[in-house]
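Continued from yesterday's entry.
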Amino acid sequence: MNQAMKNERLAIRQKLIDTYSGEAESLAAEQSEKFLAGDIKTILNSTAQSASELFEAFTGREDSLWQGMVIYGKDGRLNFPVLSSEDEIADSNPVLGKAWQLEFVEKDFLSAADVYGQFAAAGDEEVRGAAMTGRIRCLKKAEKFAEALEACGQLAWPDEKQNRLLAKLIPVQIQREGGKQDRFIAEARLMQIELYQDLSHPDLQKGCEKILKNRFSDLSIDSATKIFLLRRCISVAEQAGLAAKPELAKAIGAAKRVVSAQEVSALAAKNYLYTSSFEGWPEGTFRRIASVGNIYGVHFAAGSRYVLGLVGGERIAEYWTKAVEGMNERAIFCRVIDNTGQVAAGAADAKTGQAVPAGERFMSWDLVGNFAGWKIELYFADSVLSEAAAAKRQQAVYLWTFILVIGSMVIVAGLLTRLMLQQAKLNRLKNDFIATVTHELKTPLASMRVLVDTLLDRSASGESDTKQAEEYLTLISRENERLSRLIDNFLTFSRMERNKQAFDFTRVNPADIAKSAVEAVQTKFTSAECKFAFMIDENLPFVSADKDAMVTVIVNLLDNACKYSYNDKQIEMRVFVESSQVCFSVKDNGIGMNRRVVKKIFDKFYQADDSLSRRAGGCGLGLSIVKFIVDAHKGRIIVKSEPGKGSVFTIKVPVAA
């Protein structure tokens, strides 16, 4: 059986080789010559153009194949791009010392501008450009914008007929000596549009368009300077919102492409300063330029010039991916290898993304023409599924299955544990609730029974003390009220749990709610140990509320303030209006709460301290009922409390419409 499978596999392999050998060989021969066919002919026919014009023509196009270009002259030396040199004239020429002193030390900009102008008119060619740019700079600082603009135009575009003043200042024969002065001319062009931008000048669009279309191609300036100036011009145009205008959008796009091409070209030129650098590199063939990144170069003679064209690896990958897409099937896949042995197009392994072992390749052809030194390789798509790979995959399946099973068991165990803990918590809460209710009900009943028995015993024995009888009856009344409120809380809680609590909303005066609540608990606040302050603002707006329910809320808050303030009670209640809401505020000087407790006090049956609850009374329902009623009234409860310093509960209810 195993031998039969091996024989079948070998037969399939041989069939694939027979099927694709002719197609791959034809592809290697034909596609190698098509990539550059059109552009090479165009470049060869463009020998009349200057080096910078040739560069602009082939890198500024939107559909350009070229990502950069290095051009050499007849002597084989670098002609374009222009790399910066160390002998360039600096703006801080010592000849201009007097002008610099006036500008930067004395801040006398107008005098400095005059001195700069004198140097521009009479100075030698090594300081003329620096003097002109210095004059523009000082006029701008002196806010002589019109004169600064005129000076910019004189220096920026010296060949234009309207610059007659320049002819008076600088002899015509040395206005454009080039090279050394071109950098200052380029800077003047940028300063001109920056002045336009500062002044919101109507010629800003025209000035930007002029530079972006010209792109300093008429000036001999180094690439670094050109890149900086073009980027700044693009930035000015975009900041002014000109990028959205159709006539400028195309120019900005071309300028960005030229900037990118200048950067790539400058990097390549540093490694290939002379054509002698191409020794061992056949003309017309692509090689990877490692110093520039994913860039490939091809060099050739164009008339009396030499050209090093630069193409992005993405474009080459796109070309070859499309060329070989017809050969990629389920059984095989194809990739293109460049001169350095790196994959230029096609995945290493279409199925797993992993590197394909060299022994799994079943076909390889050398490319020719522009891609001489490159290869096309064909691989079995299922060859990566060797026995070792299959074993590893199977092991991975078993491992993940084991992990999933264990994980599922852990999750189920966790859920069961959580359910059991919740059930235990519910049982504990139920037992605590029953114990608390029993205690709370027995306490007032026992007190009333003792008082009643005492009164009956005195009556049976013939002893009668009217004052003491009234005192006992008052105590019985209080315990009765306490028992009633406790039962009301239980009933309210029961209706809450069954969602059957109904409210009768009417227009109610907040003062009536507050007064009714205070009357209900007045007897607790009459002792000498308690100081109670009650304040109601005048002309309170009405609220839409269930009066009895809101009275229950205030009573609960006042009752808690009394219970949890032990000695020298100081309780204050205020009713006022704030931000179109009626506020009921209850303040005490009791034991207070920390933040953790404040977050839980509205939970059902929550009691911060069992011993404290036993001392003060209650079963943890009061504040949960308060929260339920306030929420039903679309209100809010705000609690501010600090341990040992008391608490402030504020109920905010919307004003009635």
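--- second protein ---
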Amino acid sequence: MSILSVENLRLKIGTENILGGISFRLDQGRILAITGESGSGKSMTALSVIQLQPKNAKLEGEIFFDDQEITKKDEFELCKVRGAKIGMIFQEPMTALNPVKTVGDQISETIILHSTKNKKSADKETLKILERVGLSPAAEVKKRYPHELSGGQRQRVVIGIAIALKPSIIIADEPTTALDVTTQAQILVLLKKLVTEDNIAMVLITHDLAVVADMADEIAVMQNGVIVEIDETDNLFQNMKHQYTRSLFAASGHSVNLPVTEVNSDSLLTVNNVTCRYRLARTKIFSKSDYFTAVSNVSFDIKNGERVGLVGESGCGKSTLTRAILGLEPIYKGEINVDNQNILKATSRTRKNIQVVFQDPYGSFNPRHKVSTLIKEPFYLIKDSPESKNIESKIDKVLEDVGLSATDKNKYIHEFSGGQRQRIAIARALIIKPKLVIFDEAVSALDVTVRAQILDLIAELAAEYGLSYLFISHDLSVIRSITDRCLVMKDGKIIEQGSTKKILEQPQNSYTQTLINAAPKLPNFQLEL
């Protein structure tokens, strides 16, 4: 018997139809994957199931959970269901967590609210949950705040909150978006183990089709708020009936035509023996502070016209190194030069030549400003910036280049899906045509079709403007496609480097081999487009 049944679900916000008659059933112990492009309605379907759709939304249809009509329940009754019986893993971990509470307190709070356990018992259970989701040492992680963790570590905390009470259903909205391949593999094994051992049902929302192929019992493909095709996983791969399904899966194997560019001997970015460390909290009042070394004696350079990839697990120091290169992180030892200028002493002219696309697009934007204001921020670095009329035309063009409409410049950032926000972040970085762009997990939130478009765009820009970039990603297929040279980072150190093809096809370090083996892979299937 179905634990969850959704019948003819329709959602309208204002005059906009978001969902146009969604229907599906989910049995206990089964995994249903919902896949599709950004903005197709995947996340809104998940939010509607637990009645967290926007207040001004008009919802029609029926949602039955354990033979109870969810849409008929009041807020008090729904609070008993959310967290305890239906767990939710949100797409944006930084916005899902409370920034003024430790992660341990946030997990134990969930346990206390939905059970009879006291604080002491909840804290003990929290330590077990943190260990289970791969956050060790649990006793130390428990005391940290969300901003003290990497993106992947924050995602694991959110997963820990969702599974804390062993709910009947877990709704996982892009649960592995921010995770490296090895951690992703561990989390997916954990989620699948929960489904099997605890007989939990799961709705898995993801744009990663390799994850879908390995995890799901059934796949629903969404387009423009409608399920265009739903079938058992094996049947869907062997017999894709809808044209959109075939194009979606074809895009997952997209290979970028990376142009051949002339790499000269001049170094655009030079990192010399850089070490970054953080002061840890004192264990006693008068004791000396200990330090955690996030980046340890790292050296490399990027020449004009060169495209370099950086891979490694969450917490290995990639993001700290990125912030140090941007001059946003103090350097304990070593030196970083951009255009032969120390980044900490660089002028605005030098700084305009290096731009960044951050991992968390929502957290990198001011929510009070419209998109047009957000995108033109880099022009403030230029003394002789173009006239307002020319800036507006540049905004229109760059929005269209990243797959959005020029009219989107009049919207606010909260009006976009996660993938659309990432596209706006890329537009902001590219608008002043910098010499070096740092892409920090820049395509991790994008569906496969949009990811292919963005990667093609980056390749075109590299050809047209001789753009150099440092591309940080946990997706090895992206690194293979978009970079010439690759660096592998572990525990704050560069353990292997060389041409991307050689590193990924003939890895010398055992850790690099582990990364490659952990990457999910699509099964072989035939497409007739």
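The mean pLDDT is 86. Residues 205 and 396 are 31 Å apart (CA to CA). Will compare against the first tomorrow.
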